[in-house]
Amino acid sequence: MRLLASFEWSFIWENRGVFLDGLWKTLQVSLIGIAGALGLGVVLGAARAHRIPVVSQVAAIYVEVIRNTPILVQVFFVYFGLSEPPFNIRLPAFTAAWLMLVIWGGAFNTENFRAGFEAVPGRYREAGSALGFSRLATFLNVTLPIGGRIAIPSSINTSISVLKNSALIGPAISLPELTYQAYSLESVSFRATEIYFTLALVYLAVVWALSVLIRALEARLALPEARRVRTRRQQRLQEAA
Amino acid sequence: MAPCPGTRHGLFGRAAKVWRLEAVSRAPILDFRRAVSFDRPAIHGEAGLPKDTLETSAALAPEVREPTAGVPVVRADAIRKSFGDNVVLDDVDLTVDAGEVLVVIGPSGSGKSTLLRCINLLEPVDSGRIFFEGREITASGVKVNQVRQQIGIVFQQFNLFPHLNVIDNLTVAARRVRKIPRATAEVRALELLRRVGLEEKARQYPHQLSGGQQQRVAIARALMMEPHVMLFDEVTSALDPELVGEVLIVMRDLARSGMTMIIVTHEMQFARDVGDILIFIDEGRIVEQGKPVDVLDQPKQERTRRFLRRSLQLAESLQELTVEEVESDEEGGKE
């Protein structure tokens, strides 16, 4: 009781602007990262599933490199490593952050979508071909809508990881996102407990909201037969209640 | 030996059911091709579509509507196909003229399905040539996708797209490949659905339909592209016996409307009634061909006789099975 009483929760409220600024930046890099990672994953996943020469092999190496190295090492390489000769690419922290998230999430989504596309029964693709669809048209009208839906649950997990990884990248390259802001505030105020407790709560709320949002989207996008199962289950639950 | 008429109808009472249905639906002979062309002004008029849509669709419709007289719609010339060491088609020739219905029968694994898939270019042939309306489609440089639009195929497993409702299943290719406006495509799709008796199912999804209904939708979907020939690959084999009739009736009406068709089937009674020519194929070779009545009733080749007799024996032994226990019959499992 004395411990709790010694906390000064008003301190958080007074510094809410710092948290909100950080949250805004976190949301910006995360949303760009999630969207980019989905796009990259669909394209490279398709290349992997259809065994498109060269692209497929390059994508496989890319996936292995990203999956088997720590994200902190990757971000240090992109932000600091590339800024030196012979590369001399100096990226702004914000650009480096979302780029890193796209690269990281893209690797995982490549695998998610590859698996999804490969799970589409060949007979649907064949039906597309028989109707005169070109290879690209078959992908866009058959493999992508069916396989993309199969890949949704795993790509949701990747998207959530992308958001959470922004907390690693911010402090590493001094991007003033949520975690970096909290960390800076702590280093001048020494109120670690209040700050990190609040920080955890904010992440929890944001990630939870994101999950709810994406799961609602998933339910809307689900294949019609799966949709029916869900509504039946709901009906059963309602009847039981 | 001529099959005894009694046993022909014996198996599951399937054939008998088909012909009872026929009696009910004999009245209107459906003309699929004429009634539902994209460029038929009457339909556009009925739907009250704007004039520019009408012109667009007419311009996009194929220029030659009827196959050139005298030239076979499909001609296969000494085609061979093997998967590894397994020779599936061995020197197969066939000719199908406009309006003709060719029925292909034969044991499982005899190459019937592969034959259809080769004609639709879903499988490349190893050697030999295939001509479609006089043009060689196995030649290099042929636009495969354009050829496939004119050769409709219906599969054993229906293969309707699960993420699209019935009408979108019908219109997706027309809209995305031939760039026909949705409104125009849907008019034609609804007309075709009406022809197969499923107009009221237009907004339902495939999983909400019975197998027979799904297969009828699949036939309508293939007809959307205005094919000049329709291929049917054992389209009733995956159906419950009581659903076979509704699909066969649609196919029969399609044949009567003058559609050129190649049908792989195990429905001997249907082959007899609808087929113009019947081919018996075994181990990748055409063993015997001729009028269905002749081949089925007076087979000349021993292998044909054995195949047909086996089908009849199957019927008899299953009938016996229902009466008394019979020792395990190896042929009983296959059809």
Note down, in words, how this protein is organized.
The complex is a heterodimer of chains A (241) and B (335). Chain A contains eleven helices and no strands. Chain A is mainly α and 241 residues long. The radius of gyration of chain A is 22 Å and the shape is flat. In chain B, 42% of the residues lie in helices and 18% in strands. In chain B, strand 4 (127-132) and strand 5 form a beta hairpin. The longest helix of chain B has 22 residues, at 302-323. The radius of gyration of chain B is 21 Å and the shape is globular. The two termini of chain B are 20 Å apart. In chain B, 44% of the residues are buried. Chain A binds chain B through residues 123-124, 126-134, 137, 140-142, 145-146, 149, 223-225, 228, and chain B through 120, 122, 145-146, 148-149, 152-153, 155, 157, 159-163, 165, 172-173, 176-177, 205-208, 221-222, 225.
Gross geometry of chain A:
flat
Summed up, the helix count of chain B is 14
Query: The biggest beta sheet of chain B, please?
Result: 6 strands, mixed
Poorly predicted segments of chain B: 1-31, 33-65, 321-335
Oligomer: heterodimer
Helix content of chain B: 40-55%
Overview features:
heterodimer; A: 241 residues; mainly alpha; 11 helices; flat; B: 335 residues; alpha/beta; 6-stranded mixed sheet; 4-stranded antiparallel sheet; 10 strands; globular; disordered N terminus; disordered C terminus
Structure described in brief:
The complex is a heterodimer of chains A (about 240) and B (about 325). Chain A is mainly alpha-helical and about 240 residues long.
Topology of this protein?
The complex is a heterodimer of chains A (241) and B (335).
Chain A: H1 2-6, H2 9-14, H3 16-49, H4 55-67, H5 71-79, H6 93-118, H7 122-130, H8 135-173, H9 178-189, H10 192-221, H11 224-240
Helix pairs in contact in A: 3-4, 3-6, 3-8, 3-9, 4-6, 5-6, 5-8, 6-8, 7-8, 8-9, 8-10, 9-10
Chain B: H1 5-8, H2 14-24, H3 32-35, H4 41-47, H5 51-60, E1 74-83, E2 86-96, E3 101-105, H6 112-119, E4 127-132, E5 135-136, H7 144-150, E6 151-154, H8 166-176, H9 182-195, H10 211-224, E7 229-233, H11 241-256, E8 260-264, H12 268-274, E9 277-282, E10 285-290, H13 292-297, H14 302-323
Parallel strand pairs in B: 3-8, 3-9, 6-7, 7-8
Antiparallel strand pairs in B: 1-2, 1-4, 4-5, 9-10
